[in-house]
Amino acid sequence: MTLPSNDAPMDMMRQLEALRAELAEVRRQQTERTTTHRWPARIGMLAGPLLVMASWAWSAENQTTTSPDIERRVTVLESLVRRGSAGTTQMTAPFEVIGPDGKIILRVGNDPVEAAVSIWSEPGVGGRTRIRSHNGMSMGGLGTKSQGDGVVGQAFVADSEGNVRAWMTGLDGGAILVARKGDFKDVAGMTNGEGGTPQVIVQKGNSSVTITESNEGGYISMSNSKGKPGTFLRTGSISVFNKEGSEAAEMTADDGWGRVQVLNKGGKVVAKMDSERTIGTGTFYVMNPAGKPMAGLLATETGALISVGNEAGDAIITMSSLEGPGKLNVMNSVGKTLVQMTGGGKAGGGVAVANAEGMPLAEMAISEDGRGLFQVNKNQRAIAVLTQAVDRPGGVVQISNFSGATVSSLTVNDTGGYLQLANNSGLPSVEATTLPDGRGTVRAGPLYKCVSVRTPLFSGGILDCIVGSTK
User: Which residues fall within 8 angstroms of residue 150, CB to CB, at 6 or more apart?
Assistant: First the structure.
């Protein structure tokens, strides 16, 4: 005797196979008995007709009472369980599995019932499975759903209140979602977007985070609580938006260059930092609300440039080292340089002041031989110079005419101050100085004839000289 196991379908299959073997044995015995009784009847038909009839009656009675009963039991079992392909066990629905308390644990049929697990099918859709809790609440399920000409699979998991918290489907290319509430407003999951693009989504109310791909590569999108764009991260690019959903900042990098931009509410760029890949420079600009540059910084391999602009975006102050020595320029509204300061030149630093047309009128500089220099210009010619004398230990002031000829000089000599006047051609005509004995003297040219004993420095006519007296 075979003891029952925990596998009821397998026990039924074993019972069915045993009945089939028993039925085969009965039929074999019946065949042998029929043959045995028929052989004597043929030999002694005339001598024992009554015996043959009795034998047939006994055989028919034995077949009626034994074989049909087994066959009926085999038919009943075959309607419930059978051997399928590859050695599988098949059962005919509907059937139910009952627990010790009499409640349905598993129900397989054509309609859902109040069971812990229900398995059924819907015409034109496919199989369905639903799992319930002890209080009858749906906790999960598997099934199919029509889509176009075919069907797709679906699965869900619910909480103790029956709210769907996790959902997996093959609709629209497939999706896996996990929700905090049953309305799927707060959700995280993976889906296939337009064109089958894979996506990872995290959503809370109207705000969301989406991770997907674009033509350039990876893509991350974040929206604010109003559903407006908040931040975009793409391959080599980041965009940040304000609360109205307008772009407020952008950072881009590609193939050795980068760019950062800040925009106002009107979409105008108000700040920009750039690394130009074509010329290998770095730039930084600050713009006004109209998008005009107000301040800028440019850096290259040879130097840097800082500029400050006016309302129209024209540079009015620049500080540069692009040409070697440092340079500061102050311009007027039409771009003419009014003040220029340079440093690090061949001789030294310099400051130049120009008129409204950009023509330099005054300069303070270092001459090539290292002397300090103040200069007033007219038509790009020096008309007044204040500097250090070359051949004398002191300063010198020179006044020139518009032709560039020096017509007046004030300097020093060994005895004191020295004044020299010249004609329009620059030839000296008057000199004034102090004699060694302390007396002043004036000498007129062009002959400078002074023969007075009291003026030993002069020779020639006395009419060309004036000498001061001490008595």
Answer: none
